[in-house]
Write a structure and sequence with these properties.
alpha+beta, 2 domains, 7 strands
């Protein structure tokens, strides 16, 4: 037999050879260093965004449906960036004093949530379910460049007790027609 020539890269594992104690220790040390580095990056987190990640002119919608045995709830949220919030202010500030009172915010939230409930087409087994508002709120928070951002929260509910039985199979769908406070106010 001819002797095996030396491996061109002795730090790499050669076929058929096991790592010695020092080689295994180095490998585990390298793996631990990578894990700690990645963990440090993840724990440090990303820097906070100064504004909306999609821009200062966006309107973002979220619908969180929760199914119960006798009803469905929809946590409908509408987040408006700085520009749409500024455009909606005259619709909310009904007395024109430049400040949004709790009564003005409440009336706006009730109106908008009623519009969202009316615009929602929630069906179960091809039957349309009436959607009602159970709670509503509107708030404005500081945004970028001295402007505010808006958040509309609507708690919506649809009764399904008449559809449920121990053997029923229900298919649920939610279709929301686009709504806008600005377009409704102009109409």
């Amino acid at each position: 037999m001819t002797p095996t020539p030396p491996h061109p890269h002795p730090h790499l594992r050669q076929p058929g050879r096991r790592y010695g104690r020092r080689g295994l220790g180095r490998l585990l040390g390298a793996v631990l260093a990578v894990v700690l580095a990645v963990g440090g990056v993840l724990l440090a987190g990303a820097p906070a965004a100064d504004a909306h990640p999609l821009g200062n002119a966006t309107v973002n919608h979220y619908d969180g449906l929760t199914l119960f045995t006798d009803h469905i709830t929809d946590n409908a949220v509408e987040d408006t960036a700085e520009i749409p919030t500024l455009q909606r202010t005259p619709l909310i500030d009904t007395n024109g004093d430049g400040a949004l009172s709790p009564a003005e915010r409440g009336a706006y939230a009730a109106s908008q949530c009623a519009g969202l409930a009316a615009a929602a087409t929630l069906t179960a087994n091809s039957a349309r379910l009436p959607v009602v508002v159970t709670a509503s709120s509107y708030q404005e928070l500081p945004g970028a460049i001295g402007l505010k951002v808006g958040r509309l929260d609507c708690a919506l509910r649809a009764d399904t007790s008449h559809l449920m039985s121990s053997r029923s199979r229900v298919q649920i769908s939610l279709i929301r027609r686009p709504t806008s406070a600005i377009s409704r106010a102009a109409a």
